[in-house]
Amino acid sequence: MAAAARVLHEQGIERTTLADIAREADVPVGNVYYYFKTKDELVQAALSEHTAHLDELTARLDELPDPRDRLKALVRAWVEQRDVAARYGCPTGTLAAELGKRADGTLDAEAGAVIRRLLDWAARQFREMRLSGANGNTDGADDPYDPYAPYDPDDLALTLVAGYQGMSLMANALRDPEVMTREGARLLHWLDSLQWASPENPLKHFPGPPHQ
Amino acid sequence: MAAAARVLHEQGIERTTLADIAREADVPVGNVYYYFKTKDELVQAALSEHTAHLDELTARLDELPDPRDRLKALVRAWVEQRDVAARYGCPTGTLAAELGKRADGTLDAEAGAVIRRLLDWAARQFREMRLSGANGNTDGADDPYDPYAPYDPDDLALTLVAGYQGMSLMANALRDPEVMTREGARLLHWLDSLQWASPENPLKHFPGPPHQ
Amino acid sequence: MAAAARVLHEQGIERTTLADIAREADVPVGNVYYYFKTKDELVQAALSEHTAHLDELTARLDELPDPRDRLKALVRAWVEQRDVAARYGCPTGTLAAELGKRADGTLDAEAGAVIRRLLDWAARQFREMRLSGANGNTDGADDPYDPYAPYDPDDLALTLVAGYQGMSLMANALRDPEVMTREGARLLHWLDSLQWASPENPLKHFPGPPHQ
Amino acid sequence: MAAAARVLHEQGIERTTLADIAREADVPVGNVYYYFKTKDELVQAALSEHTAHLDELTARLDELPDPRDRLKALVRAWVEQRDVAARYGCPTGTLAAELGKRADGTLDAEAGAVIRRLLDWAARQFREMRLSGANGNTDGADDPYDPYAPYDPDDLALTLVAGYQGMSLMANALRDPEVMTREGARLLHWLDSLQWASPENPLKHFPGPPHQ
DNA sequence: TATGAATGAGTCTTCATTCAT
DNA sequence: CATGAATGAAGACTCATTCAT
Q1: Each residue of C20-43: pLDDT tens digit?
Q2: DSSP B104
Q3: Which nt sits closest to A19, CA to C1'?
């Protein structure tokens, strides 16, 4: 499964032959089929592998006391992978993109699930941040652009993960790991800036885009 | 070329056969080879097609007097494509991701070039924005987190395009066009918020992520 | 198609590879797939080939004025094929038997159809025989063993074709062409004996089984 | 062995994998190989199984005092199996047909042997019938169509078994158990009609095909 | 004896590419 | 320039058979 995850990430699903995976795993081709009845099952296994990696990572991050620190540590972990990302993109993201091209949507639902899992974890952190720092303001929930409205943790999570996917894809397309560093710094800065804005407490620090 | 661009976007490079493209273009297979000697040349043609589309779009946007409006119109154009993006992702982005998996890097340089072209156009707009609105502060260029440092147009462009790629990929992975709407709104809001911050002019409006 | 029919008959469906057929037809394997998208389509083509042969044969027989003579000529044609039958069995029969083992019943319905076509032709001949020779007795249609009841052409046809299939299979299993000769003679004799029995016209000649 | 016989009959030799047989027998695959060194040995075992069934059946029939009754009971036993025959054909017959397609003739000799064993038993019965009913006429043995010539028990046996194989194959090809019923009735009728014809004792009853 | 994993040769099928007309 | 057939090199998948335990 590790071999499959690695090779599928590096070469993409379609360009990876079973022989590639078998060679990487150092087993004969036929034996691969003893464990995985189809190539699709191998892709699924690779997806599971990524899920497992993600779970392991978030479990480690969960040990940090502050949810904001957890999120920042996550971003730092992403940036550390910058060379891989610049060469092959985000494993889950590129897998999802490839699976999305299929007519039969069995597998891409699973790719979406992996991403949703990350989304959920991040949303949980954002929700916890609110608990410790919220001013309880729930007015204006109807106006999504009210700067004093409470944050929606799901939206924040979406922004975070989309940010990761975006920077991975750009780093990959431009073959430049520095993209990860720069955009990663922006995300860290953004995470730091998140706080409840109120008329008495206007946002002074620029929380979103980079202003380097 | 249009047929190639369309089918390659929808099915991905590897899953698309020449027969698919020929059928879509309503010409016999042999004829395709009269114009394109290899499949790679067809991919290249599709890439050119996307470049042409992009040039056409930016040319139209260039007619708007205000560079900020041009960028906002670009974002709106992206959001309008939300259904396609949710189904197949960003044409250039997914193409680049697929080409990035290749050992031979002939074509993915070209995919990168298309994205860089977009990046350049956006940076030009940001640069223009600065020209019309900057306070001339170039201090602190060394400190990327100095909130009063001048923006780097290239970085802003990177953030913008990464934002687009990220939201496209997320919309695609989650099969949810609404992702485009939400993240697009955030980008618009962000574009609106961009201005020179200074001690006398602190940022009052939340410029980054949405907080509903 | 001729090559497919021949090889499939000789080697059976499962033991015949596409390479076998391609070699026999003296075309490269890939080219076979230009005309037949799957192996099953090739089997179907072989079936059509057999149908065509059958049609050709019956068309020739139809030129004989007497229906009884047509049937007898058919039996003689079968006997002439005794060496092939002893080696490989009846083409249609063995094909039908093999197809009958499949879970998916798409093709074996077609095999059945070929046999039914033969059955229909034979029944037509028997019906014609009745028209020219019947005594009009329709009594006792309820008693299938009333020796004076009129013959049912469909049953006669079934008996004839079953006789052919039986003798082919026995010849094949025993690898003995003489089986075809002996049983063929019995069928001829039986065809000759068919006439309307009545109390005034008791059957004197042994019409059914062999009594050599 | 029973599992092998059953599955090989239902699926055919080539479409049956060792895993199928192992699963049906509820033993692990490796274990099958402890008892049967090759797949061919399994086929042979299935053939033995059929022989054993046949021996058991004929032994039971041998208890009947009249040889004609034994043969008629055999036909009735065949007809009772009509549903299996309509679905999968005669076990021995289809096996023999499949084995006949092989280049190497080791096994199909054995399939022929099973059928010959049946032939021999039937011939024995016919011979016994003659002993008890013959008029001793041995004239005209040279003229196979002399209606007063003595029957050849081997030929009668061949006709009987060919009749069985033919009706099984037709029932299978047409997927219609009623074929067995109709042709079975004809065979019974035929068995009943068998007697020595002589000028003084012309055949009054229609002995051959049904004429309803 | 029993077990389940290992092995690799062989089969169907696809497809980029070529080519004769 | 157009066309449709030809070609063969892969690639997914199967399965009889072996083998270590």
Answers
A1: 999 999 999 999 999 999 999 999
A2: S
A3: F11
